[in-house]
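input
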Amino acid sequence: MWIFLVFVTLVFGILAGLYAWTVFQKLAETQIGNPRVAELSEIIHKGAMAFLKKEYSWLAPFVAVVAVLLAALPGLGIGAAFAFILGALCSATSGYIGMFVATQANGRTTFAASDKLSKNPAGNALEAAFSGGSIVGMVVVGLGLTGLAIAYLFLNDVTTLAAFGMGASSIALFARVGGGIYTKAADVGADLVGKVEEGIPEDDPRNPAVIADNVGDNVGDIAGMGADLFESYVNSIIAAMAIGAVYSFSSNEVLGLWGIGFPLFLAAWGVFSSIIGCMMISRKAPYADTVAATIRKIPGFDKIMDRIDAGDASFALRVGTFVAGGLMIAGTLILSILFFFTNSLNVFLSVTSGVLAGILIGYVTEIYTSGDYKFVKGIAGSSDTGAATVILSGISLGMLSTGIPVILICISTLISYYLAGMFGVAVAAVGMLSITGISLSVDAYGPIADNAGGIAEMSELPEEVRKITDHLDAIGNTTAAMGKGLAIGSAALTSLALFVAYSQAAHIEKIDIMDPNVIVGLLIGGMLPFIFCSLSIDAVSRAAGSMIEEVRRQFHEIAGIMEGTAKPEYERCVEISTHAALTQMIIPGVMAILVPILVGFILGKEALGGLLGGAIVTGVMLALFMANSGGAWDNAKKYIEDGHFGGKGSSQHAAAVVGDTVGDPFKDTAGPSLNILIKLMTVVALVLAPLF
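output
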């Protein structure tokens, strides 16, 4: 039976990889007909890949040391070390491939938007950007399922499989923090000096930080994000497998292999659902035209497909996601009946609660962070009275925005628990992340569109080209915020499931909050996300300070930059971002691993449980607050740049840029790293549970 589970998991993992490969082949066939666009795309590509190789060379010794320690610890051994290394390799590979593809798609998106021979440049630009994003999404789920299948094949042990998640989370945290520091140091320096002080457009080639800024979009928002969602995806599956292996409905026998297999089959069906959703948006995959033609035959869908083909990006991305979600729900019902029969409805409703909660969290996030709604317009309006009120209104919105997502998480938790116990909560998390293939595709499309706009500006292409890329980028900011909301929501459910798995492995029946050791654990756990955010934001602040000084120096000392007769020293800014990212990502990452270990050994396994509970509560709140504040500030700036409240170059615009620079480390460094932090600490506790 378990061999069959491995086989099915491998098949769908390979299917996702084949989809990604065929779309990449189609994308690679598209030639960039503008030499300047091709040149800039290649510069960004080389810079991004060079950073990633250097980052991985720094992380390799860490992986080796942890693997040796795991192999030497009693109760863990070679199996845990193997799983840890495999998880780290798969996570790193997903980031590497994602970075490679995104830096191939950016220039093609720019050229598609500028192609004068095309009748539909907006639609073609969306096609190119989303094609790149869909490759990133499918590579992540493909490697996730393939890696889990290989690890399970060799280990045949669900508990040791948690080390795979630990390896994935370790790389993801370093990649997210390091990438976030890199990109935001460049972004803040470029914006505050270039846009505010010198009054030149974003991505102007005269700005010395412009190359580092565009490289950073890929380093933080593609490689970091790919590794982030990779670990979210695999950890949700691992947690559900661990609980399913020992769970029983009422007085029945434990689920065993049925409980292990169900999360794997859910994830496999999610791959298929995501592929269909992606085919609705992009026609570069084999049979995509056939799928689109079939969907057109459904009453009412012909007009929907017309809007997608016309290049309505926001509509296309939303419809593709909803179709994938609908297919996922339908498939879940069939799988629930096949696996559990008498308890099928309970399990089905548990998974569905996770899927619906994820979709609703994304929708609520869009309301709070999109320029189409009152909240972002309100932040833009506050720019009339300066940067301080922009910052205050953004902070207020971020705090307010935690309410509905947390309530949705609570509702999903209660529904799934009362229907199917902690196994229900675990599969709800899998359900929320089951369509990661298309969710990440939509998310990754944003940075590609952003890069495309930067290349258009640096290539001095006509204004109508920049309008197309800016429109795609603005939608990308919203989809990125939605993706972060989904990742945070799933982190809460996954962390709860991992927490239960830890309690089972450590033989903890209950945690008494009147126990002083547990109270100390709770307080330390609640503190950690704040310390982590402090370290991350301070790293961005110091790196951005160095970047600002360097950009100012070049504007003042290199004659002819503003006139366009002299070339800035782009490589100096790249060096500053690279050095800051590599040196300052270490402490936050190591802290996440060491503190749970120390608390577990010094204060005991119950205190460690308290630490995990405290970290989950404050981590989820802070992550939602920071991600939504940052997204709202960014789109408030873009709303003003579209001509509202004074437009570009106005005092309102300058105030909004300041707000955006405050939001940059919120939404792209500290905020998204928090969901990895709480899962990494929980999975470390699970892996080391036999020692406590």
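quick obs: The first helix runs from residue 2 to 29.
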